[in-house]
Amino acid sequence: MNLVLVGFMGTGKTEVSKEFAERTGMRYLSIDKMIEEREGMSISDIFKEKGEEYFREVEKSIIKEVSSMEGVVIDAGGGVVLDDENMENLNNSGVVICLKARPEVILDRVDNKTDRPLLNVKDKLAKINEILDSRRIYYDKIEKSIDTSDLTIDEVVEQVKSLVKYSLN
Ligand code: S3P
Protein backbone atom coordinates (compact mmCIF):
# COMPACT_ATOMS: atom_id res chain seq x y z
CA MET A 1 0.00 0.00 0.00
CA ASN A 2 1.42 3.38 -1.06
CA LEU A 3 0.55 6.94 -0.19
CA VAL A 4 0.22 9.26 -3.18
CA LEU A 5 0.05 13.04 -2.80
CA VAL A 6 -1.22 15.05 -5.74
CA GLY A 7 -2.38 18.65 -6.05
CA PHE A 8 -1.40 22.01 -7.47
CA MET A 9 2.12 23.43 -7.14
CA GLY A 10 2.75 24.98 -3.73
CA THR A 11 0.11 22.98 -1.86
CA GLY A 12 2.75 21.24 0.28
CA LYS A 13 3.13 17.84 -1.42
CA THR A 14 6.91 17.63 -1.07
CA GLU A 15 7.21 18.77 2.55
CA VAL A 16 4.28 16.65 3.68
CA SER A 17 5.29 13.48 1.87
CA LYS A 18 8.89 13.74 3.13
CA GLU A 19 7.66 14.17 6.70
CA PHE A 20 5.14 11.35 6.37
CA ALA A 21 7.83 9.03 4.95
CA GLU A 22 10.21 9.88 7.77
CA ARG A 23 7.63 9.19 10.46
CA THR A 24 6.41 5.92 8.98
CA GLY A 25 9.74 4.62 7.72
CA MET A 26 8.32 4.40 4.21
CA ARG A 27 10.49 5.35 1.22
CA TYR A 28 10.00 8.82 -0.25
CA LEU A 29 9.86 9.14 -4.04
CA SER A 30 9.64 12.38 -5.97
CA ILE A 31 8.38 11.95 -9.52
CA ASP A 32 9.97 15.29 -10.51
CA LYS A 33 13.37 14.26 -9.13
CA MET A 34 13.15 10.92 -10.95
CA ILE A 35 12.36 12.74 -14.20
CA GLU A 36 15.35 15.04 -13.68
CA GLU A 37 17.65 12.12 -12.93
CA ARG A 38 16.48 10.14 -15.93
CA GLU A 39 16.83 13.06 -18.31
CA GLY A 40 19.99 14.45 -16.73
CA MET A 41 18.56 17.97 -16.67
CA SER A 42 16.30 20.19 -14.60
CA ILE A 43 12.52 20.32 -15.10
CA SER A 44 12.91 23.89 -16.40
CA ASP A 45 15.46 22.77 -19.00
CA ILE A 46 13.30 19.83 -20.08
CA PHE A 47 10.37 22.24 -20.66
CA LYS A 48 12.64 24.68 -22.48
CA GLU A 49 14.58 22.26 -24.64
CA LYS A 50 12.19 19.35 -25.17
CA GLY A 51 8.76 20.83 -24.47
CA GLU A 52 5.91 20.08 -22.09
CA GLU A 53 4.58 17.21 -24.18
CA TYR A 54 7.88 15.34 -23.86
CA PHE A 55 7.94 16.07 -20.11
CA ARG A 56 4.44 14.57 -19.77
CA GLU A 57 5.54 11.39 -21.59
CA VAL A 58 8.48 10.85 -19.24
CA GLU A 59 6.24 11.69 -16.26
CA LYS A 60 3.72 9.11 -17.41
CA SER A 61 6.23 6.31 -17.79
CA ILE A 62 7.72 7.00 -14.35
CA ILE A 63 4.23 7.06 -12.77
CA LYS A 64 3.64 3.65 -14.29
CA GLU A 65 6.89 2.30 -12.82
CA VAL A 66 6.44 3.65 -9.31
CA SER A 67 2.81 2.54 -9.19
CA SER A 68 3.98 -1.06 -9.18
CA MET A 69 6.23 -0.51 -6.15
CA GLU A 70 5.21 -1.26 -2.57
CA GLY A 71 5.38 0.81 0.61
CA VAL A 72 6.42 4.10 -0.94
CA VAL A 73 5.27 7.69 -0.49
CA ILE A 74 4.82 9.20 -3.95
CA ASP A 75 5.24 12.97 -4.31
CA ALA A 76 3.63 13.55 -7.71
CA GLY A 77 3.89 16.73 -9.79
CA GLY A 78 0.93 19.08 -10.06
CA GLY A 79 0.04 18.01 -13.59
CA VAL A 80 -0.23 14.23 -13.20
CA VAL A 81 -3.99 14.55 -12.69
CA LEU A 82 -4.47 15.60 -16.33
CA ASP A 83 -3.93 12.08 -17.60
CA ASP A 84 -6.54 9.38 -16.86
CA GLU A 85 -4.04 6.55 -17.12
CA ASN A 86 -1.77 8.22 -14.55
CA MET A 87 -4.67 8.47 -12.13
CA GLU A 88 -5.77 4.88 -12.74
CA ASN A 89 -2.24 3.63 -12.02
CA LEU A 90 -1.88 5.78 -8.92
CA ASN A 91 -5.33 4.87 -7.58
CA ASN A 92 -4.51 1.18 -7.99
CA SER A 93 -1.22 1.59 -6.16
CA GLY A 94 -2.51 3.11 -2.92
CA VAL A 95 -4.32 5.92 -1.18
CA VAL A 96 -4.42 9.10 -3.26
CA ILE A 97 -4.86 12.40 -1.44
CA CYS A 98 -5.17 15.79 -3.13
CA LEU A 99 -3.64 18.75 -1.31
CA LYS A 100 -5.31 22.10 -1.98
CA ALA A 101 -4.64 25.73 -1.08
CA ARG A 102 -6.02 29.18 -1.83
CA PRO A 103 -4.39 30.93 -4.83
CA GLU A 104 -2.87 33.70 -2.64
CA VAL A 105 -1.30 31.10 -0.37
CA ILE A 106 0.08 29.24 -3.38
CA LEU A 107 1.56 32.51 -4.67
CA ASP A 108 3.20 33.16 -1.34
CA ARG A 109 4.77 29.70 -1.28
CA VAL A 110 6.09 29.72 -4.86
CA ASP A 111 6.88 33.40 -5.27
CA ASN A 112 10.68 33.43 -5.03
CA LYS A 113 11.23 30.13 -6.75
CA THR A 114 12.21 29.86 -10.41
CA ASP A 115 12.08 26.09 -10.77
CA ARG A 116 8.47 25.93 -11.99
CA PRO A 117 8.38 26.70 -15.70
CA LEU A 118 4.58 27.02 -15.82
CA LEU A 119 4.73 29.91 -13.35
CA ASN A 120 7.66 31.66 -14.95
CA VAL A 121 5.60 34.70 -15.91
CA LYS A 122 5.20 38.27 -14.70
CA ASP A 123 1.72 38.01 -13.23
CA LYS A 124 2.04 34.80 -11.25
CA LEU A 125 -1.29 35.12 -9.41
CA ALA A 126 -3.22 35.43 -12.68
CA LYS A 127 -1.40 32.39 -14.04
CA ILE A 128 -2.08 30.38 -10.88
CA ASN A 129 -5.79 31.23 -11.13
CA GLU A 130 -5.87 30.39 -14.82
CA ILE A 131 -4.24 26.96 -14.40
CA LEU A 132 -6.27 26.21 -11.26
CA ASP A 133 -9.49 26.98 -13.16
CA SER A 134 -8.53 24.72 -16.03
CA ARG A 135 -7.59 21.87 -13.68
CA ARG A 136 -10.30 22.22 -11.04
CA ILE A 137 -12.39 19.39 -12.50
CA TYR A 138 -9.41 17.04 -12.25
CA TYR A 139 -8.45 17.94 -8.69
CA ASP A 140 -12.09 17.84 -7.58
CA LYS A 141 -12.46 14.29 -8.91
CA ILE A 142 -10.15 13.04 -6.18
CA GLU A 143 -12.19 11.79 -3.26
CA LYS A 144 -9.80 12.60 -0.41
CA SER A 145 -8.44 16.11 -0.07
CA ILE A 146 -6.94 18.46 2.51
CA ASP A 147 -6.86 22.25 2.33
CA THR A 148 -3.38 23.09 3.61
CA SER A 149 -3.80 26.90 3.46
CA ASP A 150 -3.99 27.44 7.21
CA LEU A 151 -2.24 24.32 8.47
CA THR A 152 1.32 23.54 9.53
CA ILE A 153 3.14 20.61 7.93
CA ASP A 154 2.61 18.61 11.14
CA GLU A 155 -1.12 19.27 11.07
CA VAL A 156 -1.36 18.17 7.44
CA VAL A 157 0.62 15.00 8.21
CA GLU A 158 -1.84 14.18 11.02
CA GLN A 159 -4.79 14.63 8.65
CA VAL A 160 -3.07 12.47 6.05
CA LYS A 161 -2.59 9.76 8.68
CA SER A 162 -6.30 9.80 9.58
CA LEU A 163 -7.34 9.58 5.94
CA VAL A 164 -4.98 6.66 5.34
CA LYS A 165 -6.14 4.85 8.48
CA TYR A 166 -9.77 5.42 7.50
CA SER A 167 -9.28 3.96 4.04
CA LEU A 168 -7.41 0.92 5.35
CA ASN A 169 -10.24 0.05 7.80
C1 S3P B 1 3.84 20.96 -12.76
C2 S3P B 1 4.20 20.87 -11.42
C3 S3P B 1 5.60 20.67 -10.98
C4 S3P B 1 6.42 19.98 -12.08
C5 S3P B 1 6.29 20.72 -13.37
C6 S3P B 1 4.85 20.83 -13.86
C7 S3P B 1 2.42 21.17 -13.11
O1 S3P B 1 5.63 19.88 -9.80
O2 S3P B 1 6.02 18.65 -12.25
O3 S3P B 1 6.85 22.00 -13.20
O4 S3P B 1 2.06 20.93 -14.28
O5 S3P B 1 1.62 21.56 -12.23
P1 S3P B 1 5.20 20.43 -8.34
O6 S3P B 1 3.71 20.38 -8.26
O7 S3P B 1 5.83 19.47 -7.39
O8 S3P B 1 5.73 21.81 -8.21
Q: How many DSSP E strands?
A: 5
CATH homology group: P-loop containing nucleotide triphosphate hydrolases
Low-confidence stretches: none
The CATH architecture designation is 3-Layer(aba) Sandwich
The hetero molecules present are:
shikimate-3-phosphate
| SSE succession | EHEHHHEHEHHEH
Supply the CATH class: Alpha Beta
Strand fraction: 5-15%
By secondary-structure content and strand pairing, the structural class works out as alpha/beta
User: CATH fold name, please?
Assistant: Rossmann fold
Q: Between the first and last Cα atoms, what is the distance in angstroms?
A: 13 Å
> For the CA atoms, what is the radius of gyration?
15 Å
Looking across the biggest beta sheet, what order are the strands in?
2-3-1-4-5
Determine the fraction of residues in helical runs and give it as a percent range: 55-70%
Gross morphology:
globular
What is the count of DSSP helices, taking H or I runs of 4+ residues? 8
